[in-house]
Design a protein that fits this description.
It contains 3 helices and 3 strands, in the order E-E-H-E-H-H. The protein has a 3-stranded antiparallel β-sheet with strand order 2-1-3, with helices on one face. The longest helix has 9 residues. The chain is elongated and about 60 Å long.
């Protein structure tokens, strides 16, 4: 299941729906006044550009793993 932020074009009401990605098109067909609320974004969570900081905080040893991979001959891996 995926979560979609939707907004009612007529009333301005917003809500989050849990629908599978395969069923979202049918949901929109069945609920005509509701459309995707793109002002809430499509990826959810976090600010733009903070993925590196989030990864460092969530898995602090990951940068060490990337460092070992980056030191290998012919590697294109870079540390965060």
């Amino acid at each position: 299941m995926a979560q979609f932020d939707v907004i009612n074009k007529d009333t301005g009401e917003t809500k989050i729906i849990d629908v599978s990605v395969h069923e979202i098109t049918q949901w929109y067909e069945d609920n005509k006044p509701w459309v995707r609320d793109w002002s809430q974004g499509c990826a959810g969570g976090g600010e733009i550009g903070d993925w590196r900081d989030t990864l460092r905080k969530k898995a602090p040893g990951w940068n060490d793993v990337l460092g070992v991979a980056a030191s290998q001959r012919g590697s294109r891996v870079k540390k965060l």
